[in-house]
Each structure stands twice: as C-alpha cells, then as structure tokens.
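Anyone able to model this chain together with 2-acetamido-2-deoxy-beta-D-glucopyranose?
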Amino acid sequence: MLFCKVSTWMAKFMPLLVPAVCASAAVANDHRVVVYYQTTQANNSATAHISLLPLVESAPEVSVTHVLIAAIHIQDDATVHLNNEPPDHTMFDAVWTDAAQLQAKGVTVMGMLGGAAAGSYRRLDGDDASFEKFYAPLHDMIGNYNLQGLDLDVEENFSLNGVVRLIDRLKKDFGNDFIISLAPVASALTEGGGNLSGFNYFDLEKQRGGSVAFYNAQFYYGWGDASSARDYEAILDDGFPADKVVMGLVTDPSNGGGFVSLDDEAPVLQELVAENPRFGGVAGWEYFNSLPGSRNSPWEWAAWMADHIRAAAAGERREIPTTEKAWRGIRKVGRRVRREAKKVYRDYIA
Ligand SMILES: *[C@@H]1O[C@H](CO)[C@@H](O)[C@H](O)[C@H]1NC(C)=O
Ligand SMILES: *[C@@H]1O[C@H](CO)[C@@H](O)[C@H](O)[C@H]1NC(C)=O
Ligand SMILES: *[C@@H]1O[C@H](CO)[C@@H](O)[C@H](O)[C@H]1NC(C)=O
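re: yes, here you go
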C-alpha cells in the first residue's frame, strides 16, 4: 500500500519529489522491521544530520518496513516539539526530506508520540475543550509532514477512554489507512503483567483492536526478555495474535538495559519464526548507533534482521545444538500445559 496524499510541506519545498512519492515501489520483506529514529543529529550538532537514506540506498532490496520518527511531545503551550525543538526547526529539514525519500521507496514513515518524557498524554486526557486544544498541533504536524501513522508510546498514566478517544479521532481525521501502533512494555501484553500506561491493553484490544495495527512491545529495561522466545510466546498464549506483536529490541547496549547480542538473538528469531509463521516482526530502539554497523553504518541492523527473519521463514535451519533442541521441546510441552491451564481457568470463571 502506498500513501499518495501530498503534504503541503512537501509540495512547497520539494515539488520535484511529489511524483516519486506516488510511484509504486515495494519493500521486499513481508515481516515488519521497524526502526525508531530519535537521535537525528550527531554529537548534538545542529548541522550534523544522521541520514536515513542508506536504509533505502545501501542495497537493492529495502529491509526496513517502518521508520518511527521520535519523539513528539505536546507542550503546555499547545505546541508540539520533536525532541527539544519545534518540528520546523532548520535542523530537522533533512529529517523531512529523508522521510519523503523513504516513502518514495515504499517505507512507511510514522511519528512516535510520548516516550520517557511525560506530559503529552496527560494533556490529551482532559475534557473535550482541553483535548481539542492539545490535539490540534499534533494533527497539524501529522498533516504537514505527511506522517502515515502514529506510534503511541504511553509511559505515563492515561485513561482507557483517553486512548480510545485519541485513536478514534486520528482514524476519523486521517482515514482508515492511517496506521496506529502502540509501544507497551512487553509485560503489559500478559495478564496481570506490569505496565507504564495506566490502562489495560487487553481492554484496549477488546474495544479498539480493529484500529490498532500492531504493538511494538518493549522487550528490555526489565519488562521483557528478548534472549529467549518465552516472553514473546507468553503474550501469544494470553491471546494477542502473533502478527500484531512486534518484538522491540535495543540496538546497542548504551541505548538501554536488556540488550541481547545479535549472535544470541539469531536462534531466538529462528525459533519464533519457525514456531509462529505469522510472527509480527522486530523493532529497534534506536537507529543512530545500531549494531552491527554502529555509528558508521547503523542501517545494517535492519538488513541483518530482515535476512535472519527471511532465512528462518524459508526454513533454512542452522544446526541447532542437541541441548538447545531438548530445551525447545521442554518449553513447547510447558507452553501447551500452561495454555490448557489458562483455558480451564477461563472456562471456570466464565
Ligand atoms: C562526532 O564526534 C566524534 C568524536 O569527537 C567524531 O569522531 C565524529 O566525526 C563526529 N561526528 C560528526 C558527524 O560530526
Ligand atoms: C500512575 O498512577 C499510579 C497510582 O495512581 C502511580 O502509583 C504510578 O506511579 C503512576 N505511573 C506513572 C508511570 O506515572
Ligand atoms: C497497569 O494497568 C492496570 C490497569 O489494568 C493498573 O491497574 C495497574 O496499576 C497498572 N500499573 C502497573 C505498574 O502495572
């Protein structure tokens, strides 16, 4: 699917790119490879832009499927910031031209609202008049920069009615093709698991599952373990469909606790894809220093992920050590037992 609505911003500054954005292009990978892009400048220098273009130019096939530009904050004066500056600051000019060129290659470019700095969702949680006031600048930013979706990273208390109101309004204003994702900590997608959002994700999925394209579940900071298939599968066992659950990973140890080396992640991905053909994909926090290429070639992370997922899906099994094979067998039986126990419990309370 391609987004052909031409933004006012693009028409004004990049008229030559407009036809390219509407040309058809294909992203080769059919599992999601999501990249968060927050550090847009090297060394905090307003002139040292960290380019996204190698993601679409370094190889004939494009590996990344979604780029999430982070983080949008709604300010108390009813304006929005991208990180510490307004989105039309000149330091972001290259961010928006890169974004348009990625879209021209079929990559979905979205915004990410919230994250660790709290306040945006509190401001969207008031009465109708207050909601309108704080929603307006967010709405304008999405339209001005042609964002194709919004990732809701709710790390502060937000009401269920508040998140439902926001989702419904985004769909109403930008159409059904506008993509909504959320970024809960992984445990929030298991029954009784901890969360940072205040509302219950099972209630949200029940009420607005049809409007949520996927969840970028954070398997780090102690809220989920990406070094084994267990926590991901616990989410599926509790009822979330695999194609909606994206495994969120840190891309370098300095980006947060819970980093898993690519060597250790490879067999986990292999198992997840082999066991769950509809595996929802991976998300990386964040782009600028992603391993294995690190600062010099951070785009290699997306290619590495796409290659490994594709190989696993094609059944290219690498030799699995006998002990690992045995553990997988034990986990599989354990899963079946747990699922049955939960079913009995649900039937009992129903
Ligand atoms: C950032 O700083 C490092 C270390 O001082 C330097 O090697 C690098 O070239 C700088 N990067 C940019 C893009 O200015
Ligand atoms: C949300 O509210 C609860 C109690 O009302 C509080 O204990 C908790 O710290 C809050 N969480 C966040 C992330 O602000
Ligand atoms: C998570 O969400 C629920 C709502 O289901 C809330 O009651 C609970 O206190 C939240 N907070 C934590 C830290 O898990």
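The beta strands are 32-37, 66-74, 80-82, 108-114, 149-153, 179-182, 214-218, 245-250, 281-285.
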